[in-house]
Design goal:
The protein is an all-alpha fold. The protein has six helices and no strands. It has a domain at 44-153. Helices cover 77% and strands 0% of the residues. The mean pLDDT is 87.
């Protein structure tokens, strides 16, 4: 029976996991959906994993950027900002700074092909994500509550 692309990907990951003491494939996949890299072959698996992890971090970075600098923000963001408490605003700024740092490091790794640095980035990003994700969830929950409350009160314009 022929192996699936996912099975091949997992098998390709094992030696790198052992060599660099990386987290399990399952753990990375749960947090960052890295299984989607099976769609294309690569000789640089850790780079692809890092890029996939970066996509998730980048999405949160852009979201927080919209909140912190709402120039062309959707109306729901503007509504939420009016009612966002100081604690959440401070938390968003702190998480934003962490995400910016990760984004810059990731971009830097696109310049240099260094497997050891890719592995270190994967380890650090997972660690930082685990530290941040509960607080990010709290921010999302608070924004959701604000949005639901504002919908009860009426529209942004009314």
């Amino acid at each position: 029976m022929e192996k699936t692309s996912l099975e091949k990907l997992k098998k390709q990951y094992v030696p790198l996991q052992k060599k660099y003491k990386l987290p399990s494939f399952l753990e990375l996949n749960k947090e960052f959906d890295i299984e989607k890299i099976q769609e294309h072959e690569t000789d640089f698996l850790l780079r692809e994993i890092r890029r996939t992890m970066g996509e998730k971090m980048s999405a949160f970075l852009r979201f927080f950027e919209t909140i912190l600098n709402p120039v062309m923000a959707p109306v729901f963001i503007l509504t939420s900002l009016k009612n966002l408490n100081a604690y959440d605003k401070d938390l968003i700024e702190k998480k934003y700074k962490v995400l910016v740092s990760l984004e810059l490091r990731s971009i830097g790794l696109d310049i240099e092909n260094n497997e050891k640095k890719e592995a270190a980035f994967i380890q650090e990003t997972l660690k930082k994500w685990k530290e941040m994700k509960q607080e990010i969830q709290q921010i999302i929950d608070d924004l959701t509550k604000i949005q639901a409350h504002s919908e009860k009160k009426g529209s942004y314009f009314g």
